[in-house]
Amino acid sequence: MKGTEQADGGRPEVVERFLRYVRIDTQSDPDSAIVPSTGKQKDLARLLVSEFADIGVPATMDQYGYVWATLQATATAPGGGPLPVVALLAHMDTAPDAPGAGVRPIVHPPYEGGVITLPGDPSVTLDPTRQPALLRHLGEHLITSDGTTLLGSDDKAGVAILVQLVADLVTDAGPRPEVRICFTIDEEIGHGVDHLDLERLGAHVAYTIDGSDVDTISYETFNAAEATVTVGGTGVHPGYARGVMVNAIRIAARLVAELPEAESPEHADGMDGFLHPHTTTAGDVSSASVKLILRDFTSDGLERRKDLVTRIVESLRIRYPGASIELSIRDQYRNMRSYIEEKDPRAVLFALEAAEGIGITLRPEPVRGGTDGSRLSEAGIPTPNLFTGGMDYHSCFEWNTVQSLERSLRFVKALVRFWGEHGHEARKGSLD
Ligand SMILES: [Zn+2]
Which of 8, 134, 238, 364 is a plausible cystine mate for 128, CB 3.0–4.6 Å? Predict the structure, then answer.
């Protein structure tokens, strides 16, 4: 049996929504100066507003293109007061890294293992030797593009899951707090929350529904700092340079050579941090500078890396007394976990418990970068990221499955109910 684009009548509604949304081009543009970076993101925003209207839940698109909707609470705290408002977010834009226009989604027959060649470009295959996660989805209906574009599961899976959640819960009397839904713009170019109205969000906790794989939760990001080392040298005629010339390029290069190679991004993954020289500027004999980023999941680890850079610079000052070597280090962002622990660890603990309640054990998946959730967490709204089933983001190999979409929806539903039943309860406990 060949893959088919036609509805077979038996598909879950969340999947039908997903297939509708991915067909709409919403690629964001890092070089654009307007907001949203591409007007076409509003095409999807308008469709979502009209689908919410069909569901019977009023929604609006604001001037920037964010879509807002609210699911009213059905439960209160025991004293009658309101439960904490929970916000659920997904981003509408797709990544600029792969073509995003003309997506033609394909729902494949149950996966039996082996290589799948996508019909739009025979060189694009789904291959378990390269993508071993495929083998965890045997028997499921894979969803891919035709191979000429990305799929856009990142993050239209999150969008479809949340619209379906509202559709399913609007007539459901099961306990829930007030739930704010917000679809964001320009996440892929790092501006997802720049214009997000936090007062309007009015949430105690939030979740981004934007994580890859199934059964994952992310609440750890790097602690981040940037160091700039500026070397001033002395330029003279190289024929008469002995004892006079101080070559800033040579000293900057020495600095880079002193950075431990074993702590480079090229050798790091999982919970490893790194030191990464990423830009050299103004490189000539009299002046050169190097910018490095420092990353670590623990604050102690980040301090150790700052220390190391400081000591290297001090040793260069001793070795090259004729040079001026300036070092400045500035903090960029903190591991979102520290904000979540300070503000309300229930954001994570309730997610873990709600998942257990439906037989899912969540796996914490550290994010090796910053996220919109880390910026929201820093702003006082603890915001872990939850799985959508999407895999191999930002590429023509991107895929999800019918079953993973349903699983993610089931989990988010359980989470909303959990906040409805337990939102008034305290929880002690660390995130270890
Ligand atoms: Zn995403």
Answer: 134
**pLDDT 10s digits, 76-100:** 999 999 999 999 999 999 999 999 9
User: At residue 2, does pLDDT exceed 50?
Assistant: no
13-220+336-422 and 223-333 share one CATH topology? no
Catalytic (active site) residue 187: yes
* Tens of pLDDT, residues 403-424: 999 999 999 999 999 999 999 9
pLDDT (tens digit per residue) in 34-50: 999 999 999 999 999 99
Look up the CATH architecture of domain 13-220+336-422: 3-Layer(aba) Sandwich (3.40)
Strand runs labelled E in 391-426 = 399-401
For the chain, what percent of residues have pLDDT higher than 70? 97
SS3 131: coil
pLDDT value at position 108? 97
Q: Compute how many other C-beta atoms are within 10 angstroms of the C-beta atom of residue 100.
A: 25
Reported pTM: 0.88
DSSP state at residue 27: B
- DSSP annotation of 156 reads H
pLDDT for res 370: 72
Number of Cβ within 10 Å of residue 242's Cβ equals 8
Quote the ligand 1 centre to 218 CA distance (angstroms): 13
Q: Is 419 exposed, middle or buried (0-12, 13-18, 19+ CB in 10 A)?
A: buried
String of DSSP letters for 368-380: SS--HHHHHHHTT
Q: What is the pLDDT of residue 432?
A: 79
Half-sphere CA count of 364, side-chain side, radius 13 A: 13
Distance, in Å, from the CA atom of 214 to the CA atom of 216, rounded to the nearest integer, reads 6
- Which 8-state DSSP code applies to residue 85? P
Q: Contact 409/17 with Cβ under 8 angstroms? A: no
Between the CA of 23 and the centroid of ligand 1 the distance, in Å, is 17
User: Rounded to the nearest whole angstrom, what is the distance from the C-alpha of residue 126 to the centroid of ligand 1?
Assistant: 21
Burial 121-136 (b: 16+ CB within 10 A, else e): eeebebebeeeeebee
* CATH code for the structural domain at 223-333: 3.30.70.360
Break the chain into its structural domains and give their ranges.
13-220+336-422, 223-333
What tens digit of pLDDT does each residue of 178-220 get?
999 999 999 999 899 999 999 999 999 999 999 999 999 999 9
User: How many residues are there in the chain?
Assistant: 432
Query: What does the mean pLDDT of the chain come to?
Result: 95
Which of these is catalytic: 25, 154, 178, 187? 187
Residue 344 known to be catalytic: no
